[in-house]
Amino acid sequence: MPSTPARQRLRELLDKRELIVAPGVFDGISAQLTKRTGHVAAYMTGAGVAASGFGLPDIGLVTATEMADRVRTITGALGDIPLIADADTGYGAPMNVVRTVRAYGSAGVAAIQLEDQVFPKRCGHLPDKQVVDATVFEQTLSAALDARSDDNLLVVARTDARAPLGLDAAIERANRYAEAGADIIFVEAPQNEREIERIAREVDGPLLINLVLGGLTPLESASRLQELGYAIAIHPSNLLMQATFGMLQSLCQLNGTDVAAHLPTSPADFFNLVGMAEWLELDARHASKDASWA
Q1: What are the coiled-coil residue ranges (predicted)?
Q2: How far apart are CA 197 and CA 159, in angstroms?
Q3: Which domains does the chain have, with CATH numbers?
């Protein structure tokens, strides 16, 4: 697979050691507008794709094929603007990860993000997450790194261990994943400024931070993140929340109802707009007591 201008551009941006701000995109118009407003990179948000493309919450319901199709739409709209694309857990065993990386690679992503949650995953800012053993995720990473046919296709390793295991475990995993060959390291959902600072000090590798509106992580400024040495700041929810607010406002104007009753104030509130409570009730009804899929 030949390299692409977008991948080369992302490498160049990282080499400059200036914070890359990547808005969260989820469809053709969000990608086009990101490009036309002068942004240097974009992040394909899995939560945004699930909600906007399929009317689903971010709890592992969207398939690898559906995500790869959306990648192609977004990279086509972005052109040479680098896309960092969420690929959840890789959608299965190492052989499934290989197929996912190949599909994302052929669709033109500049970087693919994989995480160490148990499948089916949850949004990183929802409760009750579980992670696989670190050695299992290292197998995922190994498969992803071997599957790419262009070294300029970067692999982002995300750990969700902060919530279920604590920050020490998350930092330990982050360094293990860097040692295993991940190009960019992503510790999901630090819960205060001290944790953000500690990750910056103790994790050895280019760092990505996730800034979700109403989420668990404080919304640090770009200047502060640059000072701490972070490489990339993704903002997955900004466009999605504004678009959702605009649609709710228009719909409530049409039938004369109060928009305030529908406005989300947290990731859980947002996902309930696309049926999370119903899906979790369905899961609880069908899963055995000791083998819940959620």
Answers
A1: none
A2: 17
A3: 5-285 (3.20.20.60)
